[in-house]
Design brief:
four-stranded antiparallel β-sheet; three-stranded antiparallel β-sheet; 24 helices
């Protein structure tokens, strides 16, 4: 198709060039003698006589049109003759011709800026200068200074630098959930929020009752008290006051006072944003456990549930008491299990839902589409090598999907149908496609949707202050060393019908040995839907890789084999098949060797 458009373009260019060849260029110098066709030294009498003959000959009323001539051309030619005649006989026109070289007089082009009239008027010069001084002398420096001050005041995560410094001082590599909440509540953004709503905290009886409720519930559930070093700072009471509202949100304590409820919503909105700044600090130190704790804090802020509560409370219309009762009995522990229960089990476990069919259908729908992740596969790979050597680049691929019985059944049917319709020619096509995909990966080309991207709905979180799209963090770490080995990659678009393919690359350890890593895929919105995979990576000496490559250095593949055809497509040499019986006797061995060579070439 591109060749067709290219041919059309060249044809269009040729046509334009052909038409341009007929355009006559006008002379830059005006010469009336040439136009009239007389000698420059002719006197006025002979000029008049000659013009009279020309006017009789070329007057539009007396001249007949020729085949390729138009009336406009005849009129234009006669006008030019008249101008030339007047330039030589009329005093004024002749003066214009002698002074400016043209009978129409001075011909000049004036250029200017289209400014309003009041700006260029003389009486307004003082006001215009004053306005320019105000804009460029005062306002512009003020705006630039304000921008510069703001850029120094906030980090790249739009967190106050003073708040970020508190994260640096108080977060450690062994920070737990309660300490993370304490550090989060010490952010100076909440200090400004407290000043804005000081009456709510100081003179509101509803807040006092809420404080007592939170303190009692927290102690009964976890045995903890708000007695950390940051809470007990009398000069910063906002830390403990903010923590009261955060824990009220996490334990789902009802608030009847509108003013207190409004402040709580603002606090949670700030808290969800500030966790990004806490993540940046932990990633600077590569603390694995602390990063996972902060992601867990993000999940619980979205779902409005404390880690002490059962994950069942994420389902709609399920009370905290009912969820705790079922979690202790062990009958049902996670939201996705609700969809597998029979009607009789649902009635016995959730008696408060009896007779409320529309509520049961709503819970059933949420449970069926609960985004519980499962691991499909994960692998390390070094392009062009069979083993991992120190310092080489490792390509890591991990496949995950959402558990869904309907999707799994459909996938199994598709696999069966594709297997039943397989033919001998399909193997070659699949091998070629696999090779093309590998080459595309090396060149950095990727088609839209190639990694299983699929649009997903907003997070189901009835207690969330605003709708949000679910995102996931994918990282590789070592829990024994408590270090992040591959920085987290944030991604989204995990649907219910496709397998999400995650790809990254990193450098192998510099020392040979057996290394154990953990790959994590954690949601920032749902609790207990994450997936984790433990993997072992063996790094061997470079001598072992050279020995393995030496074993794979085989002769050129036969041209009539699959390996030979793929090698020919790459421009590599192939061996022509011999007609002797000796070649037939050794074909089986060469075929197996060719297959291994082909797999190595594909990796290349």
């Amino acid at each position: 198709m591109s060749h067709v458009f290219l041919a059309i373009g060249w044809a269009l260019l040729a046509y334009i060039a052909y038409r341009a060849s007929f355009v006559k260029a006008s002379s830059g110098t005006y010469d009336p003698f040439t136009i009239l066709g007389i000698n420059p030294g002719s006197d006025e009498k002979s000029i008049k006589r000659h013009f009279k003959r020309l006017s009789l000959k070329f007057h539009p009323d007396k001249l007949k049109l020729k085949a390729n001539q138009t009336l406009e051309e005849i009129n234009e030619h006669f006008v030019n003759l008249t101008k030339a005649y007047k330039a030589l006989t009329d005093d004024t026109i002749r003066q214009n011709y002698e002074m400016y070289g043209h009978p129409d007089g001075k011909r000049e082009t004036a250029m200017g800026i289209a400014l309003p009239k009041w700006i260029v008027e003389t009486r307004n010069h003082g006001y215009v200068v004053g306005l320019y001084g105000l804009v460029f002398g005062l306002m512009l420096p003020y705006l630039v200074g304000k921008w510069w001050h703001g850029s120094r005041k906030y980090t790249k995560d739009q967190v106050l630098t003073e708040s970020a410094s508190r994260y640096f001082l108080n977060l450690t590599e062994e920070t737990k959930f309660a300490k993370a909440v304490e550090v989060l509540c010490s952010s100076l953004e909440f200090k400004a929020l407290e000043s804005k709503h000081s009456r709510v905290f100081e003179s509101n009886k509803a807040y006092k009752r809420l404080e007592d409720q939170v303190t009692t519930t927290l102690f009964n559930s976890t045995g903890e008290k708000l007695e950390g070093s940051l809470y007990n700072n009398n000069s910063e009471k906002f830390v403990k006051r903010t923590a009261i509202l955060v824990y009220a949100h996490l334990f789902r304590i009802s608030i009847s006072d509108v003013a207190v409820l409004k402040v709580k919503h603002e606090v949670i909105n700030y808290a969800r944003h500030l966790t990004n700044g806490m993540q940046s600090v932990t990633l600077g130190y590569n603390w694995l456990s602390t990063f996972l704790v902060i992601v867990t804090l993000q999940q619980h802020l979205v779902q409005a549930m404390h880690p002490a509560l059962s994950p069942l409370v994420q389902l709609p219309h399920i009370s905290v008491k009912t969820a705790e009762k079922l979690a202790k009995s062990g009958e049902i522990k996670s939201p996705e299990h609700f969809a597998t229960l029979s009607e009789q089990q649902k009635t016995s476990m959730f008696p408060e839902l009896k007779g409320q069919d529309h509520i049961q259908k709503h819970i059933q729908s949420i449970s069926e589409h609960w985004p519980k992740l499962e691991l499909v596969s994960s692998e390390f790979k070094v392009v062009g090598e069979k083993i991992v050597t120190p310092g080489c680049v490792i390509h890591f691929t991990m496949k995950v999907r959402i558990k869904n019985a309907k999707r799994l059944a459909t996938a199994q049917e598709n696999e069966k149908s594709s297997a039943s319709t397989s033919a001998s020619g399909q193997a070659t096509e699949q091998d070629l496609k696999g090779e093309e995909l590998e080459i595309d990966e090396l060149l950095g080309r990727k088609k839209a949707g190639a990694d299983g991207e699929e649009k997903c709905p907003v997070v189901h979180a009835p207690h969330a202050t605003k709708d949000t799209k679910p995102c996931y963090y994918w990282l590789v770490g070592d829990h024994k060393l408590n270090r992040i080995f591959v920085q987290p990659i944030k991604f989204t678009d995990v649907g219910y019908t496709k397998t999400r393919v995650l790809k990254t690359s990193f450098q192998a350890p510099h020392s040979p040995g057996l290394y154990t890593f953990q790959a994590y895929v954690k949601s920032d919105s749902y609790v207990d839907t994450d997936v984790q995979a433990s993997m072992q990576l063996r790094v061997e000496e470079k001598e072992a890789a050279e020995d393995a490559n030496a074993e794979d250095d085989i002769s050129e593949p036969d041209e009539d084999t699959l390996a030979g055809q793929m090698a020919a497509m790459r421009g590599k040499p192939t061996k022509q098949q011999k007609d002797s019986d000796d070649s037939d006797d050794t074909s089986g061995t060469e075929s197996s060797d060719d297959d291994s060579s082909d797999s190595d070439s594909d990796s290349d």
